[in-house]
């Protein structure tokens, strides 16, 4: 049985306790019929759940799990001699869980772990409900409380900078965009994406997800309030279900397509800009090239900022790193001249 246990994951080692313990309960003459057997089985199930939670928290070596499983297999839980061992084992594991400091999980590792999981058989509605309950209860969060406060404040400050600090009128003129609320929303999404691009390479997974969720939640609260104020001025409801659904879809499309385009060539990024910023309408290619230059140069500027300064002070001013276009052109001309002379 141990050979089979070694081939499985560390969580499955504990599962092999079940048949032996049930068999010992059935063959033990010291059990006082049904009540004591039921109590013993309850203690076993509780011990099993505690071991599972401890294994998830602490990186216990496989040999320790195997020895624990063997001792529990050979131990009759109804006997008094087993109780001290169980209590000492749980107390020791609890101390390890509180003192052990594991390496923070990176965002790429979290994404790969999610992609490696088999698809759930539950309906999407049930999955969203379970995810919402876990988010409300804060289960699995290993963030320090002081860090949570800092991340929440940083998310609100960064959203304010993404929505109000950039030169809105100048960008509308440079990109050939009309002065509409939808234009403000699309440009705000662009700056939010650039901030998230900067932060996801520096923060661990839990911290990044909390900051991202707080930033997006603040954005939707602000969007609802702005649309409510505008709707009162023009005496029209702008927060209908279809409008909010369309804006939410544009928000997801923008973040995903900008990610793909930024990591690809300028032609792919140009297609993403045309679909997300210009909504596939007729536009000047010069305006699209300006948007691409602005996005890449702004992300390059954000990379020069320190992470602590971004979280504490926000982005006081949106700047760009000026590319040396003239120098690149001169180098290309020199290469062409060398090739032509050969």
From TrEMBL:
What phylogenetic lineage does the species belong to? Eukaryota, Metazoa, Ecdysozoa, Nematoda, Chromadorea
Residues that span the membrane, as ranges: 20-44
Provide the Ubiquinol-cytochrome c chaperone domain boundaries.
173-315
Q: Which GO biological-process labels does this protein carry? A: mitochondrial respiratory chain complex III assembly
GO CC terms in record: mitochondrion
Which family, according to UniProt? Belongs to the CBP3 family.
* Entry-linked InterPro entries: Ubiq_cyt_c_chap, Ubiqinol_cyt_c_chaperone_CPB3
Top-level taxon of origin: Eukaryota
Q: Which UniProt keywords apply?
A: Membrane, Transmembrane, Transmembrane helix
Does this entry carry the keyword Membrane?
yes
- Protein name, UniProt field: Ubiquinol-cytochrome c chaperone domain-containing protein
């Amino acid at each position: 049985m141990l050979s089979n246990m070694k081939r499985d994951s560390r969580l499955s080692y504990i599962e092999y306790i079940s048949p032996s313990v049930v068999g010992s309960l059935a063959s033990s003459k010291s059990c006082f019929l049904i009540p004591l057997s039921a109590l013993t089985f309850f203690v076993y199930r509780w011990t099993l759940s505690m071991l599972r939670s401890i294994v998830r928290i602490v990186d216990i070596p496989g040999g320790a799990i195997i020895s624990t499983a063997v001792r529990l297999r050979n131990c009759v839980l109804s006997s008094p001699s087993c109780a001290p061992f169980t209590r000492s084992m749980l107390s020791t594991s609890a101390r390890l869980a509180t003192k052990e400091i594991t390496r923070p999980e990176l965002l790429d590792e979290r994404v790969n772990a999610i992609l490696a999981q088999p698809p759930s058989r539950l309906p999407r509605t049930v999955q969203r409900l379970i995810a919402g309950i876990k988010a409300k209860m804060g289960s699995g969060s290993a963030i320090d409380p002081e860090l949570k406060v800092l991340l929440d404040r940083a998310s609100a400050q960064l959203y304010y900078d993404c929505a109000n600090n950039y030169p809105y009128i100048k960008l509308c003129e440079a990109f050939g965009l009309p002065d509409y609320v939808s234009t403000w929303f699309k440009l705000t999404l662009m700056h939010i994406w650039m901030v998230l691009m900067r932060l996801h390479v520096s923060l661990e997974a839990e911290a990044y997800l909390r900051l991202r969720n707080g930033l997006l939640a603040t954005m939707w609260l602000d969007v609802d309030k702005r649309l409510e104020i505008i709707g009162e001025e023009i005496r029209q409801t702008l927060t209908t279900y279809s409008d909010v659904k369309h804006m939410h879809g544009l928000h997801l499309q923008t973040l995903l397509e900008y990610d793909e385009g930024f990591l690809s060539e300028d032609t792919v990024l140009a297609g993403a800009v045309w679909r997300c910023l210009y909504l596939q309408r007729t536009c000047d290619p010069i305006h699209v090239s300006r948007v691409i230059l602005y996005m890449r140069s702004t992300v390059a500027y954000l990379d020069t900022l320190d992470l602590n300064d971004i979280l504490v002070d926000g982005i006081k001013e949106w700047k760009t790193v000026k590319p040396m276009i003239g120098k690149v052109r001169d180098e290309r001309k020199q290469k062409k001249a060398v090739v032509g002379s050969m």
